[in-house]
Amino acid sequence: MVLLGICEGAERYCPAWMDEVRARVVEGYRYFYEDVAGKNDVFVGTLYLQIWGAMVFWGIGGMFALLDFTAPARLERYKVQDKVKNFPMESSLFAKVARRVLFNQVVVGAAMSALAWPFMKRFGMTYAPSDVPSAKTFVWHLLAFALVEDVLFYSTHRMAHEVTWLYKNVHKIHHELVQSFSIGARYAHPLEDFFSNLLPVVAGPILCGSHMLEVYLWVSVALTITLIGHSGYHLPLLPSSEAHDYHHLKFTGGNYGAIGLLDDLFSTNSKFKKSVQAKRDIVLPLGGPSARQLFPMPPTKSS
Prior knowledge:
By secondary structure, this protein is mainly α.
């Protein structure tokens, strides 16, 4: 009932300019749906969605990779971890990660598309441009998507750490990257990629019976946040990547969720909240000092 309430929304809380933006986006979607996809709902909900996700992933991941390989000296201070490694990036490590990511995108992505399609139909998802909901409804759907993602990602991610067999045989692959970089977000065992990376993202739109345009926009938002969170950078004006990077640094340091709601509820971020990284977990202004400069690591006893 809570989820349905969020999905239905209270539309009066969104500004009118959003409807103008919606109109422009719908026109773009109309061209894609009618002229590119030929009104083929199956392709729009499966193949083209996978292609769109890959374009967003490699577009943003590629920009971070460019920083990793060129390693501008002025950006080193914006690296999250205090002991900076792989800066510049080792090409062999990048290639190793890229191969697994591409496998997951093609094989695991195809499996998710095939299995999700019947549920898309069953829950009444729509595709035609004339069925696109109001911008205000989408905002409330977006909140529902984020809530569902946090519940499912938190649950599967925490299980992957606390069930010894799952960590040893599945999740440990992802934690080979102690200092993560952007495309490492999908460097994972295929089972983890399916249940922790893909399922939490697609479940919300399906449960809400959403429009496919909402799915494309939501996938773009979710991927962008994930790629920033795994980037290894804490750049000005961008969302902080401190919380998830701390999880990679400490392995069992909590921070299991996507947005931190359940981590707060179950206190699985208590170690993080006591750390210097928690003080750094802010949005940095442009032109100011880096998070590491604002909150330096305290000296160790040996020093």
